[in-house]
Structures are given as structure tokens and as C-alpha cells.
Amino acid sequence: MLDLLYRLVRPLLFRLDAETAHELVFRGLPLVPWLARGLAPDPSLRVRIAGLDWGGPVGLAAGLDKNGVGIPAWAALGFGAIEVGTVTRHAQPGNPRPRLFRLPEEEGLINRMGFNNGGAVGLAANLGRLRNAGAWPSVPVGANLGKSKVTANEDAVEDYLHSVNVLRGKADYFVVNVSSPNTPGLRELQDKEPLARLLGAVVPAAQRTPVFLKLAPDLEDDALHDAVNVALEAGCAGIIATNTTISRPGTTGRLSQFGGLSGAPLRPLARQKIAAVLAAVGGKAPVIGVGGVSSAADAAEYLSMGCAAVQLYSSFIFRGPGLPSRIHAELASARRPPL
Ligand SMILES: Cc1cc2nc3c(=O)[nH]c(=O)nc-3n(C[C@H](O)[C@H](O)[C@H](O)COP(=O)(O)O)c2cc1C
Prior knowledge:
The chain is of the alpha/beta class. It has a single domain (2-334), classed as Alpha-Beta Barrel (TIM Barrel), CATH 3.20.20.70. It has helices spanning 2-13, 18-27, 32-35, 71-76, 119-132, 156-167, 192-206, 221-234, 267-281, 296-305, 314-319, 323-335, and strands at 47-49, 52-54, 58-60, 82-87, 100-103, 108-111, 141-145, 173-177, 211-215, 238-241, 260-263, 287-290, 309-312. The protein has an 8-stranded parallel β-sheet with strand order 3-13-12-10-9-8-7-4. A 3-stranded antiparallel β-sheet has the order 5-6-11, with no helix packed on it. A two-stranded antiparallel sheet has the order 1-2. Strand 9, helix 8 and strand 10 (238-241) form a beta-alpha-beta unit. Helix 10 (296-305) packs across helix 12. The protein is globular, with a radius of gyration of 18 Å. It binds flavin mononucleotide (FMN). The site of flavin mononucleotide (FMN) has 27 residues, from strand 4, strand 6, strand 11 and helix 11.
């Protein structure tokens, strides 16, 4: 039903600027729980990650719902977990528009949003309202945290800590995002020393809430290795790999916008970097694989490599709202023994 609707409106949406289309779709989100029924993943697909029960191994990646305004809709569509954010300590407008671009033939996106968000306090209010209304979903909701643009890297620890303190007890897990390419200097926080300082403060401040570290696919394998070691030593619950890339693999190069590339063209690079992260982690913590997942085969490949779960964003835009439940259904039937 939703997929049919999407097939009808997609050509119209794709004629609009990508962010305008996004805003239009968000206006319809309150209707989704009424339209989407029976899309919850098969119970056989449940996975426990860092003490949290994912409904299935396909989660929503960060960035689609920065302020946590569509959580009941994402849950109704059958995502196994929902990551909201990135939020920053200070609400901020992000970069000037246009800042989100489609590559329809390649099923890729380029974005330089720059953490447009309503701030950690705004997200905490939205999550609090949901909890108080008894509308918290049955799947985990993570809060992805970044650094405010106005904050210098030297003051980054304070900035993240503020968000943790505001959101502790509201989100089911935290993600320390030091890997988005659109905040100047942010990715320098992936270096060993600043990362150790940051995680050494955030993990204890999060108390019982698990903290994941999200890494960029543009790091060399030895830098990924170092970052993973720092994260494990600091007590992180796991790693999320990967964010978008500033490189341009597999695209025609026709769209020469700067920003982070995601979707199908990212997949070969993400796959390679996920493998490097899995090797560095060595089974000591869960790894969540992200980057170009657009089918059950893609998800199954990351899972068979050793990922505990996967997340997706870009393919949802190209393939429609039925995608997470379709992938879950295919994964469940592939696991069922033949009659
Ligand atoms: C428009 C857009 C905005 C994004 N914003 C964020 C963000 O705020 N924080 C974050 O950690 N990742 C962000 N991402 C990255 C995604 O979470 C994901 O890591 C990346 O897109 C790769 O997955 P995909 O190929 O399935 O899209 C964003 C991606 C896109 C396309």
C-alpha cells in the first residue's frame, strides 16, 4: 500500500529539490503508523546488541530524522532500531541550501547538510514527550551526537558532554559521531589522542547507556585500527562503520557537488572499511555495518562478514518506505529451513 503510494509520488518528489521533497514527506509522517501495519520484523530476526533488543538487523541510519520527530513512523515501517540525530549542543541551521543532491541513476546522494538540527535540548524534549505519552517504540532509539559548528575542537569534549547530560535516560544508546565530513575539523577528532580524551569523558558520563563510535570510510586501515583500539579501551559498546565519503568512487562524476557521498556508490569502499573495522575489533564488540545497503543480499553480506546489524539511509529514498520490511522478510525466509 505504502509502496504503491510511493511509486506514484516518487516521480513528483524527484522533480523537487531533494530537501524540499524531504520536508514534504515529513509532513505526512504522522499518517504512516495508520497506513503501515504488520511490518514488524519476524521475531526470529531479533538481535541483542549491547544489551538492547533490536527488532531485526536492519536499522535506520542517522541523519534522516535529526530531531527525532518521526520515531513512531520509522518503527511502524519495521526498522529494527532507529538512530536519530546528529544533534549538537547548540541548535544550528547547517550550511546554506541547496545542500542535498540525488544521483538517481547510481542511487547515491551527496550531502553537505552541516548538522542542521534543533539542538540536544530539543531532541530531549521530543524523546521525553514520546516516553511520557507511552508511545516509545518496541525497538531501541539511539541519539547520535556531534560537535556544534561554533565550538572549537579544543572545547569539543564539553560540547559532547553537554548533549550526553541532556539526553541521558532519554535515548537507549548514544553514538559519538566524529566522522561527518561537513563540519570543519570534526574528523580530526578521530585521531588517537583527541579521540581518547573525548571517549574517556563521554563513556563514563553516559553511565549505563551504551556508547558507539561512528567512523568515516576515508580513514586508512591503520587509522581505523587505532580508532577502534581507543574506543574499546575507553569502554565503547561497539562501532558503527561507515559514514559518508568525501571520495567519489563509482560515480559518473557528473555531479561535482562537494559533501559526503552515500548510497550504492559508497558500498564497495564501505564494505572494505567494514572488513578492516571487523578485523580490528576481533569479535570483542559488535560492529554495525552501514554504507550502500539497498537489498537483503547487501544486508546478508555485511551480516555474514560478522556485523551484528546494518543500517541504511540512502536506499530508503530511492526504493521507498517498504524497504526495511522487505529486507527483513527476505532475510527471515532465507533463514527458514526448506519444508
Ligand atoms: C542527507 C544525509 C544526512 C546525513 N546526516 C548524518 C548525520 O547527521 N549523522 C551521521 O552520523 N550520519 C549522517 N549521514 C550518514 C548516514 O547515517 C550513513 O552513515 C551513510 O549515508 C551511509 O549509509 P547509506 O549508504 O545507507 O546512506 C547522513 C547521510 C545523508 C545521506
